[in-house]
Design goal:
By secondary structure, the protein is of the alpha+beta class. It contains two helices and four strands; from the N terminus they run αββββα.
Amino acid sequence: MTPTSLAIALPLIVTLCYLALCAVSPFGNCRKCKGFGYALKTDRRGRLRPGKTCRRCRGDRKRIRVGRHLFNVAMRLHRDGTR
């Protein structure tokens, strides 16, 4: 495989894999709380304790993926434009 075709094929494969991931699993773990639903804090002894509810995911622990959000926006724009 030539370097040019490899440079074209690799990003295409990565993009198609991400699109498949967004189609199969549209929600991923929250990046801020890492899927815990709350911020972790430590007490005086150094033990981890649950803190405040995560503001980004509001404690749901899941957020919509960027690719799925863009797909939803495109579908909504198409649907509203063809009515």
